[in-house]
Amino acid sequence: MPGEQGVWVLIFGDMLLFTMLFGAYLNSRSHNRALFAESQLALNRTLGVANTLVLLCSSMLIVLAVRAMRSTQFRHLAARLTLAGALVGSCFVIVKVIEYRTKVAAGITPNTNEFFLYYFALTGLHLVHVIVGLIVLLVLWRFARRTETTRTQVAVFEGGGCFWHMVDLLWLIIFPLVFLVH
């Protein structure tokens, strides 16, 4: 398993937290199908798709960065790929801020109804994870800029990459669950 053991404890803990939130969301939706279906129509699926593509592209760049970090031949590309992954990933934040501004301007807040409480809670908690992940990527970028790295530093780099992929995976569940599935 790549990375440090502590990172996997964090990743599985986060996944457990989100699993419980998904379960609560699905339970609430099962009791209020009409409200959830009607409220879901107010979401901008195009922005959701854009954010999905942003995170998938960013994750691909981080996969390449981890491979470059492990390689002697392509090691020099690790910093560029990591920075590119962070820059692409930061587009998620921009799109989400636009999405939130649009909702609030239309009078839609967590107090609007139960669906939007879950919408803002799930996507907001995920957004916090994206921001933390971007900070992690910037730390990894600093590691990748070093000419010499230890095995431990490479393991930390791999663990940071795994955290970023978890953030991506969570969105791949949140997007269809909240935006698409009735």
From TrEMBL:
The keyword Oxidoreductase does not apply. The chain crosses the membrane at residues 7-26, 46-66, 78-98, 118-141, 162-181. It is found in: Cell membrane; Membrane. It is a multi-pass membrane protein. GO terms for molecular function: cytochrome-c oxidase activity. It comes from the Bacteria. InterPro entries: Cyt_c/ubiquinol_Oxase_su3 (IPR024791), Cyt_c_oxidase-like_su3 (IPR000298), Cyt_c_oxidase_su3-like_sf (IPR035973), Cyt_c_oxidase_su3_a-hlx (IPR013833). GO terms for biological process: aerobic electron transport chain. Keywords: Membrane, Transmembrane, Transmembrane helix. The keyword Glycoprotein does not apply. One of its GO terms (cellular component) is plasma membrane. It catalyses: 4 Fe(II)-[cytochrome c] + O2 + 8 H(+)(in) = 4 Fe(III)-[cytochrome c] + 2 H2O + 4 H(+)(out). Residues 1-182 form the Heme-copper oxidase subunit III family profile domain. Belongs to the cytochrome c oxidase subunit 3 family. This is Probable cytochrome c oxidase subunit 3. The lineage of its organism: Bacteria, Bacillati, Actinomycetota, Actinomycetes, Mycobacteriales.
